[in-house]
Design goal:
Structural class: mainly alpha
Largest sheet: none
Radius of gyration: 29 Å
Distance between the termini: 70 Å
Number of strands: 0
Order of helices and strands: HHHHHH
Helix content: 55-70%
Strand content: under 5%
Length: 134
């Protein structure tokens, strides 16, 4: 884009902005108490697409809990959770379902670890204490 076209675009934008000024602002500019200034600010990016919300029902939560009950290692428990749940709200819902306390500022990995520790880890610790083969 050449200099003349760029200047023309800026002046067109300036005229548009002045046209959108309120009567009160125009009166302020006419008075000697105010001055007109030009400010360059970054545009805010607004996404028009609403975020897709996945809703998990109780049967899906029960399925995940059932799979966690069969998991033989903590790592497999994390894999089970990651295969079924994608976002933090879903993890928080599962945590609530298995009665694991989470805070709003907890990271996803911490929530996963807390759920796995509460389900798979508790079973593994209990088995180790009882001397059962896991």
């Amino acid at each position: 884009m050449n200099h003349q076209t760029t200047l023309k675009n800026y002046l067109t934008l300036l005229v548009s902005l002045v046209d959108n000024l309120s009567d009160a602002d125009l009166k302020k500019i006419d008075s000697e108490d105010y001055e007109f200034s030009l400010k360059v600010v970054k545009k805010s990016i607004k996404k028009n697409e609403p975020k897709e919300k996945r809703i998990i029902d109780g049967s899906t939560l029960d399925l995940i809990i059932g799979e966690l009950a069969l998991a033989e290692t903590r790592e497999s428990g994390v894999t089970i959770i990651e295969s079924h749940l994608k976002g933090k709200p879903e993890l928080e819902l599962l945590a609530k379902h298995v009665e694991v306390a989470v805070m709003a500022n907890d990271k996803i990995s911490k929530i996963k670890d807390a759920i796995v520790d509460s389900t798979v880890g508790a079973r593994l610790r209990s088995g180790a204490i009882q001397g059962k083969k896991i």
